[in-house]
Amino acid sequence: MEQLGITILLKLMLESYLQCVMGAEMYPDWPKIDYWPIEALKAQAVAARSYALWRIVHPRNDYFHLYGDARDQAYDCTRRHPKSDRAVAETEGEVISSPESGFVARYVSHCGQEQCPVCKGKNGYNNRVWEGRLCQFGTKALADQGLTYVEILQYYYGGDVMVERYDE
Predict the structure, then answer these.
(1) In this structure, what are the phi and psi dihedrals at residue 91, rounded to the nearest 5 degrees?
(2) Which terminus of the chain has a lower count of CB atoms within 10 Å, N or C?
(3) Per-10-residue mean pLDDT for the chain, 168 residues long?
(4) Is the pTM here over 0.85, yes or no?
(5) Cα separation of 119 and 130, whole Å?
């Protein structure tokens, strides 16, 4: 006997979607209360928005754009938080623009890159080095040093990237 399954697809406004991504990707109170500085969260919001828009143009398949897990972006509305909602609101409509052809704003929890202030060439996610990706834990270290979210994005994606507003 063949089993039938149901796949649920959600159609969301981008900023509402990002509120649920932010809490799942960088929950402000994990690993401890008020852990993530607002500039780190804003860098993540812009990177996540940029990646989501790239996936809309380059969907996973004919049925949906992206996965709500580590294959694309973690998505969990039960983890929404006022501080991450603030980061989404304060960067609303902002995306990363790069002169590099084929640029994709990818990110990972630990990048393993040499220049990362946290990884320092070691301990990348799955023991890999993720070149060209924003390091979520690195964003905290850079924000703690006083860098703005734009400076953090330029640190990981290159000094020639810009943050601009996108047209819907």
Answers:
(1) -115, 15
(2) N
(3) 66 91 93 94 98 94 91 95 97 95 95 97 94 97 98 97 88
(4) yes
(5) 11
Residue 154: name the closest of 123, 115, 121, 125 by CA: 115
Number of other residues whose CB lies within 10 A of the CB of residue 124: 20
Q: Give pairs for 126-130: CB < 8 Å, separation 24+.
A: 130/106
DSSP strand pairing (107-108 vs 94-97): unpaired
- For every residue of 105-154, DSSP letters joined together read --EES----TT-TTTTTS--GGG---TT-EEHHHHHHHHHTT--HHHHHH
**Residue 25, SS3 per DSSP:** helix
CA distance 82 to 84: 6
